[in-house]
Amino acid sequence: MNDAVQLTTPSYWDEACKYLAKRDRVMKRLIPQFGDACLQSRGDAFTTLARSIVGQQISVKAAQTVWDRFAKLPRKMAPANVLKLKVDDMRAAGLSARKIEYLVDLALHFDSGAIHVDSWREMGDEEIIAELVGIRGIGRWTAEMFLIFHLMRPNVLPLDDVGLITGISKNYFSGDPVSRSDAREVAAAWNPFCSVATWYIWRSLDPLPVEY
């Protein structure tokens, strides 16, 4: 089903790669290793956030299985359709009671216009994060992943992301433990393309591209 979705690639990617390779020795080494691969955005805002809720605290494989079952329930994955689903059917797809509550809250926020999807292009990162964390089950990390993978914002630094901290430790500190302030110092050289550098740090740990 997802394969039919048009993938989009950020217009700033090539510029960002050149900039990072000039400013940062690790990026200069990492970027060429992954050829033309780059960040890609798929799907719509509601689907992206619903997938992130379904995937919380379970493995990627389990998340895909539950998502595939859940996605078959509504005729089309849209907020109004999710609000019509029966709780029993959602439970049968493998969703916990809490995740069902979160998905319903997400659908209500979209359906009622409580979040300003159409204004996001003009809004700053922190303003969008503030709207998203008002939805049950969405914390700052999920909101930052949404900014990177869906809105393709170029300068997001997700300091709560374990992969980013692990990757900075491995690539910059020979595996020694890294604090948030250490990570922030390393990332100062990445500004204004922290999202791009973060993506390459993730790739250094797992060569398969991260997708949401």
UniProtKB/TrEMBL annotation:
Single GO biological process annotation from the record: DNA alkylation repair
Catalyzed chemical reaction(s): Hydrolysis of alkylated DNA, releasing 3-methyladenine, 3-methylguanine, 7-methylguanine and 7-methyladenine
Positions of the HhH-GPD domain: 54-206
Gene Ontology cellular-component terms listed: cytoplasm; protein-DNA complex
Domain of life: Bacteria
GO molecular function, one term: alkylated DNA binding
Documented EC number(s): 3.2.2.21
Alphabetical keyword list: DNA damage, DNA repair
Pfam families: HhH-GPD (PF00730)
Top EC category: hydrolase
Family: Belongs to the alkylbase DNA glycosidase AlkA family.
Protein name listed in UniProt: DNA-3-methyladenine glycosylase II
Species of provenance: Ramlibacter albus
